[in-house]
Amino acid sequence: MNIDFFIHNINQDDISKACETMKSLFLTTGPVVAEFERKLALYLGVKEAVGLTSCTGAIHLALLRLGVGPGDEVITTPMTFAATATAIIQAGARPVFADVCPKSGLLAPEAAETAVTEKTKAIIPVHLYGRMADMRGFARIAAKFKLSVIEDAAHCIEGRRDGARPGQLSSAACFSFYPTKSITCGEGGALACDSSEDADWHRSARHHGISKNAAERYFKKFQHWNMDFMGWKYNMDDIKAALLVNQIDRLDEYRLRRQELETIYRERLSNVSGLDFIESPGKDEISAHHLFTVLLPRKANRDQTALRLQEMGIGCAVNYVAVHNLSFFRKTYGYKPEDFPIANEIGERTLTLPLYPRLTNKQAETVCDALKEILC
Ligand SMILES: *Cc1c(COP(=O)(O)O)cnc(C)c1O
Fold first, then answer.
1. Residue 138 in contact with residue 112, Cβ under 8 Å?
2. Helices 238-245 and 12-23, packing angle to 10 deg
3. Ligand 1 test: best mutation among 86, 176, 180, 184, most atoms within 8 Å of CB?
4. pLDDT 10s per residue in the chain (376 long)?
5. Which architecture characterizes domain 12-250 according to CATH?
């Protein structure tokens, strides 16, 4: 592969910090996780962050904290990774999709409002491609119907919209540190919230619902632990936190570099007939610029185009085939492609091009030229 789809940003200092941690006695959830949590919360401008093993686990716990369970419905977007919906099912509830805005691909507040029933407990907008969903719009709907909002912020730690950042207008924002995300530790996640009570609950829930974690038992005097409620095993460990903690300092530098690359893509691909872009963020908005996707001309074959790009040595991906079209969701809930026509069309036309700080301008231009060659 000449141009990889993604290259992560773990550097030698991150590795040294992880090595240092591995030479210490304490490897599970301890002081480095606490350091990471403080730093992430500070970056986001929220009270608390809780280190977890995945974003999927974070969404699952956020739903459980709201008391969501069997018989409940949770509204989300079909234009997301399957995990947004599977976390709802893990909590015992039913995922109900609502269609997206054609220009941005983001969950449309009006569509979500139409999907509300008396069983609805929560809405999970996704900050797709790095651009924040209309959180003030969802907050209004939540207030009107007495619902909660949870953010799938796997694509957006860095964003800001209408004066708010992830975690500030919801019960919880959920993050992923999977290898293709803007910062990574291999596999990992976090939840951010503005309530210390919620964070305390999550710190227990990530570890079986046990009252004292290993750090408290190790660093403090002998004390019995108890199990207060049914929890899960989602605790981040100190090695992962060591890899992540200093990547937080580089988030905005990386975001700006991705933004530059996106400008190159938009300029160099602007004259391809039939090719559409996802709308740029508004003037006062900060997007994380997590993914750059194009909507291929309607007459083009997306899968063939992806294959051709791969053959030319260029990595690409599809983010995403609409979730309601995946076999499991069709079989289990009876969804049909035409139920959400906009997400369906984006899912058929979308192609994601390489976007990461280590991609050079020259490489971005090569990607554009290869795509043009295939399409013309
Ligand atoms: C990556 C991703 C997830 C899942 O994150 P994990 O940490 O792998 O659980 C969820 N939602 C979206 C939108 C993602 O891109």
1. yes
2. 150
3. 176
4. 699 999 999 999 999 999 999 999 989 999 999 999 999 999 999 999 999 999 999 999 999 999 999 999 999 999 999 999 999 999 999 999 999 999 999 999 999 999 999 999 999 999 999 999 999 999 999 999 999 999 999 999 999 999 999 999 999 999 999 999 999 999 999 999 999 999 999 999 999 999 877 777 778 888 888 999 999 999 999 999 999 999 999 999 999 999 999 999 999 999 999 999 999 999 999 999 999 999 999 999 999 999 999 999 999 999 999 999 999 999 999 999 999 999 999 999 999 999 999 999 999 999 999 999 999 8
5. 3-Layer(aba) Sandwich (3.40)
Q: Which residue type occupies 6?
A: F
Closest ligand 1 atom to 54 CA: 7
How many angstroms is it from 228 CA to the middle of ligand 1?
A: 29
Report the alpha-carbon distance of residue 9 to residue 20 in Å, rounded.
Answer: 19
CATH number of 251-375: 3.90.1150.10
Residue type, 173: A
Any idea where the domains of the chain sit in the sequence? 12-250, 251-375
Question: Is the CB–ligand 1 distance for residue 320 below 6 Å?
Answer: no
pTM score of the predicted model: 0.97
C-beta of 178 in contact with ligand 1 (< 6 A)? yes
190 in Cβ contact with 167 (< 8 Å): no
Which pair of structure tokens corresponds to residue 360?
């050079």
- Angle (CA) 247-208-166 rounded to 5° is 35
Residue 280 to residue 273: CA distance in whole angstroms: 19
C-alpha distances (whole Å) from 86 to each of 58, 78, 92, 121, 173 are 12, 12, 10, 16, 17
Query: 291 near 129, Cβ under 8 Å?
Result: yes
What is the b/e burial string over 155-192, where b = at least 16 CB atoms within 10 angstroms of the residue's CB? bbbbbbbeebbbbbbbbbbbbbbbebbbbbbeebbbbb
